[in-house]
């Protein structure tokens, strides 16, 4: 199911539903994720396993009190940068998802994922990757469809609309990434070569510190203005 030769990973589990908590414990027992403590809330878990500076994995239910859970993760990440946090939810909501990643969550998973997907996701998180389901792309596209987009020509004339650090052209291309456009489609939209698009995308990823196009799209959804003017706060 996962890397059998991997070293044990200290793991904390926060799940208020006793049945689900026991099920997750059984799943983790067959993996390198060594459960150090589990409980219905984070305070209960901390009492059992006081955190330290060593890397550890936190799996936390975020169905209820989502905002409070995000605040807890942000505080943990600030004090313990080696911590990894995986949030479990019962449905996807773009605003909540963005809040989770802003807080420092490393993965955002729905509770209906298979055991194999869960464990593979944990593996990716411990390798330093950010994990979220493919359904998120659909949410991003819906979000983009609801926006009142400014045309490319108008945006070119309005450099004030560009986020700090990005050129106007990069800002426009970033919005295209948020909408799921391919390099080929972006090139066709703005009458430039695909090679030029790739150069812009590479620069965008570097400037916003995103690892890939999907992370860039999530960043864009929370940072680009919906009407093409001014930064969203």
Automatic annotation (TrEMBL):
Record GO terms (molecular function): DNA binding
Entry keyword annotation includes Phosphoprotein: yes
Residue positions where 4-aspartylphosphate is found in the record: 61
Domain annotation Response regulatory: ranges: 10-126
SUPFAM superfamilies attached to this UniProt entry: C-terminal effector domain of the bipartite response regulators, CheY-like
One Gene Ontology term from the biological process aspect of the record: phosphorelay signal transduction system
CDD domains given in the database record: LuxR_C_like
The HTH luxR-type domain, residue ranges: 159-224
Presence of the UniProt keyword Signal in the record: no
Domain of life: Bacteria
Alphabetical keyword list: DNA-binding, Phosphoprotein
Name of protein: LuxR family two component transcriptional regulator
Pfam families: GerE
PROSITE patterns cross-referenced by the UniProt entry: HTH_LUXR_1, HTH_LUXR_2, RESPONSE_REGULATORY
InterPro entries associated with the record: CheY-like_superfamily, EvgA-like, Sig_transdc_resp-reg_C-effctor, Sig_transdc_resp-reg_receiver, Tscrpt_reg_LuxR_C
């Amino acid at each position: 199911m996962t890397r059998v030769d991997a070293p044990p990973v200290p793991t904390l589990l926060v799940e208020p539903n006793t049945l689900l908590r026991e099920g997750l414990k059984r799943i983790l027992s067959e993996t390198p994720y060594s459960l150090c403590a589990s409980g219905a809330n984070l305070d209960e878990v901390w009492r059992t396993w006081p955190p330290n500076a060593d890397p550890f994995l936190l799996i936390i239910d975020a169905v209820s009190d989502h905002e409070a859970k995000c605040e807890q993760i942000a505080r943990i990440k600030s004090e313990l940068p080696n911590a990894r946090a995986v949030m479990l939810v019962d449905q996807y909501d773009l605003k909540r998802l963005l809040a989770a990643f802003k807080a420092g969550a490393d993965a955002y998973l729905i509770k209906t994922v298979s055991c194999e997907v869960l464990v593979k996701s944990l593996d990716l998180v411990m390798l330093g990757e950010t994990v979220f389901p493919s359904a998120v792309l659909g949410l991003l596209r819906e979000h983009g469809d609801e926006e009142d987009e400014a045309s490319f020509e108008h945006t070119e004339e309005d450099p004030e609309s560009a986020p700090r650090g990005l050129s106007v052209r990069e800002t426009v291309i970033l919005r295209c990434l948020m909408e799921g456009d391919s390099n080929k489609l972006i090139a066709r939209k703005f009458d430039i070569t695909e090679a030029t698009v790739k150069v812009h995308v590479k620069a965008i990823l570097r400037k916003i510190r995103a690892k890939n196009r999907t992370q860039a799209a999530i960043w864009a959804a929370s940072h680009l203005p919906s009407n093409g003017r001014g930064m969203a706060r």
